[in-house]
Amino acid sequence: MARDTFVLGLSGEPDNLNPVLGYAPDGGSLLFDGLVTRTADLELKPALAVELPKTDGAGTTVTFKLRTDVRFHDGTPLTSADVAYTYQAVLDEKNDSSLRSDYAAIESVEAPDPETVVFHLRYPYAPFIQRATLGIVPKQSLDRPDFNARPVGTGPYRFVSWTPGDKIVLEADPSHWNGAPAIKKLILAYASDDNIRATRMAAGDFDATELAPKAAARFEKTAGLTVYRVPSADYRSVMFPMEAPVTRDKAIRKAISLAVDRSAMAKTILAGAGSAAFGPIAPGTSWYDPSVQGSPTADQAQAVRALEQAGWMPGPDGVRVKDGTAARFTLMYPAGDSLRKELALAVASDARRIGVDIEPAGLDWDAIGPRMAKDALLMAYGNPFDPDHTNFELFHSDFAGQGFFNPARYRDSEVDALLEKGRRTADPTIRKQAYDAFQRRIREDEPWVYLVHLQHVYVVRGEWTGITPAVESHEHATGGLFRNLADWKPAA
Amino acid sequence: MSRALARMVIWRVAFTVPLLLAVTAGMFALATASPFDPIRQYLGDRAQTTSPEIAARIRENWGLDRPVIEQYLDWLGSLLRGDLGESRSLHRPVVDVIGDRLGWSLLVVAGAMVVMLVISLAVGALAAWRRNSWLDRFITGTAYANEAAPVFWTGLIAIWIFAVQLRWLPSGGLTDAAATTVRPTDVLRHMILPVAVLAFSQSSWLLLFVRESLISTLREDFVTGARARGLRERTILFRHALRSALLPFITLLGARIPELVTGAILVETIFSWPGVAGTSVRAALAADFPLLAALTLLATLAVVVGNLLADAAYVIADPRVRVLGVS
């Protein structure tokens, strides 16, 4: 099927197309290239760099060598000054970049010669190279008044036009350093409603789209269309405040973990596009520890045993009581999120069966923030790239109670030590051991009870080679199935 | 008459200044009272992976940590210098953001106004002419039902019928998804549903007004006189009665502008039409204050100018008329 124009139906239109300001930092942009990129196995491979970088013995100096044959879409050659500018612009407080937190480890960036970029880190930070997928912009681009409207990058596709609220038109760069893409014209059309995207996919408006599992079911048997269910690290989990009277008791958390029916959640709420989750690291990634397991179905008898051993006995109204405290707490979820709402209701109904009374409460994020110290919350995170990402801030005691960082106020010196070891050690074997121990410790203590890992669902028209699903992230900025669209070729 | 007109315009413009001040001050007060945190909205999902210090720094950069009065005076000062600021969510000058979209909005709104005028005049006159017939009852019944129906509901029904079931018309967007250039015929085809829905949803009130006004005019002495002279009923209706019934219609049209603006917001959102009205929803959801403020100003101005034009047309059409500001 040879065709020149390919239309992607996407849900969320980006606010801007500038990597510095937060556009597609994890390599999800076709307009920009990073220093490195990822294979389908989530291994890093060089992109604008000729090879993976060298890190010095102290772990704080990372040196990249650049390719010399790369040009921006406007014809200017890429040099190390552009790379240094990009990272400095992210770190510049004046630019209000939403990514700055992710790059907090960088102390300075320098470009000693046109082909070399050197990053100086504040502390040894092994996962730093995972952040080097950030798209590189030309130097001084933030001073160009029209850059955010007409971006210039080095990626396989060039910017053509943007009709805000409707679509972005891109064209293949025939002289791209990695070869010209087979799809010559690419249109990113935006429609936020799942049903509208499904209708337009059915009507032939779109060649590929992302859908909610339920909306994708109708395409399962359509000739010429393929439905892809891609596993992800995107989890939904219950965060328990560790300083609140009921949820601070490990027996309560353990009992809820045993009482929830994860397989029913995956089957009904996720329409089959998901699997039971028992920890923050997704199965299917190399960091996952297979011993972190559990029963996907509910085990009420054992949950009740755990509660009774800890002294939680049935009270007059069916709710268990221990030392005058009723097993009762609030579970918050963001009001507009129907998936989290359904999961919260399922957790509450499973918990009621073992005599724990959970009151689900749909609130706005601004109302949720101040209540996280005393009320449980249905969380969504998950990033398959490096276990340090988000987990360091979510579970290290240094961050306890700092906004959305470690909202549970979880304090465990063993977890702190493991997270620090994983961050500061370069040796992958030692890191793997540290994160395995971390996963087991979280599974044992259950400050958060993990419910499900989601699958992301895509529908593609026609036969293509080069489609390589990879375990995806919670954030949509990674491009999902479409991240390597430049490599797709019509099947002969 | 032209002097009277000029005085009216001057009076109105003078009145507009305190009005705009009141509207913008009210908007600032509401934004401060709003429970939405603009930083949270700006960071989106990333708000949960951003450290509190960095969020605080952005707040400081935007001047949100300063007193409201100070922020308002700052904004007002820039406005007087012709600087509307930069959209926080889109990272582009507000003037550019509005400039890109205003034309598309005007196209739909102007199209809808023309269709609305024609429909309400023609159908209203028809209902008055055939009053109390089944046709009249059908027309007025539909008009009342339509007046009660929300625009987004009408829009979704129209998409379901014409785009999903019959597949005659596209369901949204400015051009076909696969189109890489903006061709007028393509835009025209995509305009049909938004314009029709907006016009239809706004026309019932006018239509009912035309009908009522005509019916009461038809009872007046000059109509009876015309009939007595043996003029044809159609001539009486269109040449005599309609003309005199039309005068208050002009004023009504001006008064409908605010509803046209809110209607446009919904229609643009339903049909992914890339106009300013749909953008105001996005600006509001993102708590993008500079953009929202400029759009609110624009909407206020549209209402003021709409009323001014209607009153001016009234003065021109009927020299006996004395409106506010003209003694």
TrEMBL record, chain A:
<comment type="similarity">
    <text>Belongs to the bacterial solute-binding protein 5 family.</text>
</comment>
<protein>
    <recommendedName>
        <fullName>Solute-binding protein family 5 domain-containing protein</fullName>
    </recommendedName>
</protein>
<dbReference type="GO" id="GO:0042597">
    <property type="term" value="C:periplasmic space"/>
</dbReference>
<keyword id="KW-0813">Transport</keyword>
<keyword id="KW-0732">Signal</keyword>
<dbReference type="GO" id="GO:0015833">
    <property type="term" value="P:peptide transport"/>
</dbReference>
<dbReference type="GO" id="GO:0043190">
    <property type="term" value="C:ATP-binding cassette (ABC) transporter complex"/>
</dbReference>
<dbReference type="InterPro" id="IPR039424">
    <property type="entry name" value="SBP_5"/>
</dbReference>
<dbReference type="Pfam" id="PF00496">
    <property type="entry name" value="SBP_bac_5"/>
</dbReference>
<feature type="domain" description="Solute-binding protein family 5">
    <location>
        <begin position="43"/>
        <end position="397"/>
    </location>
</feature>
<dbReference type="GO" id="GO:1904680">
    <property type="term" value="F:peptide transmembrane transporter activity"/>
</dbReference>
<dbReference type="InterPro" id="IPR030678">
    <property type="entry name" value="Peptide/Ni-bd"/>
</dbReference>
<dbReference type="InterPro" id="IPR000914">
    <property type="entry name" value="SBP_5_dom"/>
</dbReference>
